[in-house]
Amino acid sequence: MKICEVVWNDAWVESGEYSIKRAMKCKPIKTNTIGYLVAENEWGVTLATDIYEKDKKNVKIVNFIPWEMIVDWEYLDG
Hints:
Oligomer: single chain
Strand content: over 45%
Largest sheet: 5 strands, antiparallel
Strand order of the largest sheet: 4-3-2-1-5
Radius of gyration: 16 Å
């Protein structure tokens, strides 16, 4: 599997009291995620943090990022 880095705009939640003026200024958090590319399809990109060496058919900690949230991405291993 290829290794890639995805730069994307993440949603977030914070509990507590916000003034409406402050809440109107909220924006996504730019996030960089590096992982093994499991899939790239019409909905987005799926990365995993680990591949089990034994059979290379199982991965761990899967992260799906929809295309609409992706700012940029690139392969890191050529």
